[in-house]
Amino acid sequence: MLLRSMFAQNYRSLRSIRMDLSGINLFIGENGAGKSNLYRALQLIQAATRGRLAHEIAAEGGMLSSLWSGPRRESEGPVRIRLEAELLDQERAITFRYRVEAGMRPPKAAAGFPFEPQIKAEELSVETGTRPVTTMKRNGPAISVRGPNGRMQDYPEQALTSETAIALLGDAGHYPEVGTLRRAIDGWRFFHGFRTDRSSPLRAPCLAVTAPMLDEDGGNLAAVFATLVHTREDTVDLDRAIAAALGGAGLVVPEPGETAEFGLALPDFPHRVFRPRELSDGQIRFLGLAAALMSYRLPPLIALNEPEASLHPDMLPPLADMIAEASRSSQVWVVTHSELLAAAVGERCGVRARRVVRQDGATWIEGMRLTGIIDEEE
């Protein structure tokens, strides 16, 4: 399913922003403009469907750190983080819209811990061409769902303040619309840079288990390469990308035993293979990106946050080639500081980078209307 639009309100620098999205979404801007907050808001939508929204907000400093702290009107009421996503099932022409709101515990409330994020409201609606139909709604702990007769009815179990209703109902297994949306969003993958220190998961052997796609921390990198080499038996595009970025280097992947391993053969040293622990930060990071973008089975959405970090400028055109190739079968979201990478991706994919700016203290996109549509003339 295609992520058609997203909305974020009162989250960090995102005062209120709605964006229409396409197959490839390219964002560029200065430090502090809020590019990573857009990326993070998308991650939080996934966290909500997994039942971990409160945990994720708490882990990044809690509601006080996550809430918009700029000017507000008194008439707006209690401040809440509000996130929305609209997904289109293109084969069946069905639109799913999911909204979730989180806020602080009221001063005199008994439920929940004093400073934990609390889920206040949720709603899931489905549109099949006529009008949206609400299939799930949550207000506080109370949940209502659309029953077999087409009417909304109370769900017998109330949600805890830290739980999301979409996760609770999804685990119950009786609500197909909820399950469909959760599976679609659960498949998204976010790659917020890779660790490259000596203890990085990218540098370690991993269990020899067939790996259709890369884990977000890169911990199954060797298994992804082994799957491509020994299961697909087609690494032409991968070999071309690695050679172009790493000075003619070639990937070496022995037949896995109990563990999967890999190395690089470098043209200047034809008689030995360099193991992951010997590779530079840029080399190992590029290999992680290659696995993320060229795995056996690509995720429905691939989000890259500043993928150019630690990469030599000569590596950026091959990276742009891989992004363009991945965009043929996956929706791609790229956040970058690099004008060179943005230009290379834009040229290969026929898109223009969306420039992220601060407008009256809030994150905004140059040339975007309040409806979320980009004025191409801008």
UniProtKB/TrEMBL annotation:
Residues 273-341 form the ATPase AAA-type core domain. Residues 1-45 form the Endonuclease GajA/Old nuclease/RecF-like AAA domain. Residues 127-137 have a biased composition (Polar residues). GO terms for biological process: DNA synthesis involved in DNA repair; double-strand break repair. Pfam families: AAA_15, AAA_21. Residues 126-151 are annotated as: Disordered. One of its GO terms (molecular function) is ATP binding. SUPFAM superfamilies: P-loop containing nucleoside triphosphate hydrolases. InterPro entries: AAA_GajA/Old/RecF-like, ATPase_AAA_core, P-loop_NTPase, RecF-like. PANTHER family: DNA REPLICATION AND REPAIR PROTEIN RECF (PTHR32182), SLR1056 PROTEIN (PTHR32182:SF25). This is ATPase. It comes from Rhizobium sullae.
